[in-house]
Amino acid sequence: MEAAPTTITVQVKFAGRTIPVEVPAAASGAELKRLLQPLTNVLPRGQRLICKGKVLQDAASLSSMQVVGGSKVMLIASQGLHQGDGPITNNSSSSATTVRRPSNVKENQTQKPEVVVTKSRSERWKLTGVVALQDCDLKVIPEEVWDCGTSIRILDISYNCIKEIPHKISALKSLNKLLLTENDIVDDSICWEGLSCLQKLLNLSLSENRLVSLPPTLGSLTSLRELCVAKNRLDNLPVEIGLLKHLQVLIANNNRITSLPSSIGDCESLTVVHLSSNLLTELPETFANLRNLKQRFSKSARSLLHWISMAQKSQMMFFDRWRGGKSSTSGGGRNIRSSSTSVLAHLVCSMKARMMIIGEGDCLKIVSIILCYDISPKEP
């Protein structure tokens, strides 16, 4: 009986071409993907392999999925950030870098040319407009990035060890999305003058770095839609943030922010704001101007808001009783009622924003908000 072959050759169809790939007969779907990376410049996580109408699973063997010698496999590559840059290591096996012809091809079968990938990564970046270099253990941004100039729309260099964003960033004038999450960036190592030239920038992520402050130059990024600066060491936000009229998402949780500028109320397009896990004890009155904020409250929070609203509508005198039980018919009582009703009206307007931004997790936070208005019971 003829021994089973140790290797098989599968025909991988990709981008209108057929790539013959020789793999061990006992290989898994994941191993096939790794062999295809240097041939297609698509990272394994961005590959979807289909054979006989079924998606090949990474953990399963090719034989268990009925992939044999001569089988045709279709490769579908995820677009955008899943595009790779060729082999990750320099010690790739020869089978991963060499395209071999099947040994049992019939003589009368049409011979197809071998596929040779020759495009450099900078050429691919220019073609797709996407530079995906996340989690590559980079310490500096490669010079090839700057050479791409206005071709680049998305630059993702998150999860690296980058310490400097130089003035050369200004060359990427078509940049829409700049992701710098989890690097080693400090205040002095980022050239905000260069960033201010990116007038088409819509999304800026600087989360999980070592920033202590944001400069006034931030206000020049007037096209910005989303700003993420979570998990830094910020103690405030610049007054110029109010110039970001199109800002819709502000993520600044897990910092050391103690107060917000009143200009935050000028960011009229804001729909999502995360400021939890900071040192905030008060929000500016202008926060009530942010009428597009999404309201997401728990049942208990909604009940409290309903209680406060009902108190305002019926003009209850509980504040009068708190402040010494003065009669509403006395002059002092009327003044107290007027003052309390005004405070209560403002409280209703801002309570929603407060619970949404600071957090509604427990009653103590809400009580602390109420105490900020000095409407707690007076000691006799």
Automatic annotation (TrEMBL):
<keyword id="KW-0433">Leucine-rich repeat</keyword>
<feature type="domain" description="Ubiquitin-like">
    <location>
        <begin position="6"/>
        <end position="79"/>
    </location>
</feature>
<feature type="region of interest" description="Disordered">
    <location>
        <begin position="84"/>
        <end position="114"/>
    </location>
</feature>
<dbReference type="Pfam" id="PF00240">
    <property type="entry name" value="ubiquitin"/>
</dbReference>
<comment type="similarity">
    <text>Belongs to the SHOC2 family.</text>
</comment>
<dbReference type="InterPro" id="IPR029071">
    <property type="entry name" value="Ubiquitin-like_domsf"/>
</dbReference>
<dbReference type="InterPro" id="IPR050216">
    <property type="entry name" value="LRR_domain-containing"/>
</dbReference>
<dbReference type="Pfam" id="PF23598">
    <property type="entry name" value="LRR_14"/>
</dbReference>
<dbReference type="InterPro" id="IPR003591">
    <property type="entry name" value="Leu-rich_rpt_typical-subtyp"/>
</dbReference>
<dbReference type="InterPro" id="IPR032675">
    <property type="entry name" value="LRR_dom_sf"/>
</dbReference>
<dbReference type="GO" id="GO:0005737">
    <property type="term" value="C:cytoplasm"/>
</dbReference>
<dbReference type="InterPro" id="IPR055414">
    <property type="entry name" value="LRR_R13L4/SHOC2-like"/>
</dbReference>
<keyword id="KW-0677">Repeat</keyword>
<protein>
    <recommendedName>
        <fullName>Ubiquitin-like domain-containing protein</fullName>
    </recommendedName>
</protein>
<dbReference type="InterPro" id="IPR000626">
    <property type="entry name" value="Ubiquitin-like_dom"/>
</dbReference>
<feature type="compositionally biased region" description="Polar residues">
    <location>
        <begin position="88"/>
        <end position="112"/>
    </location>
</feature>
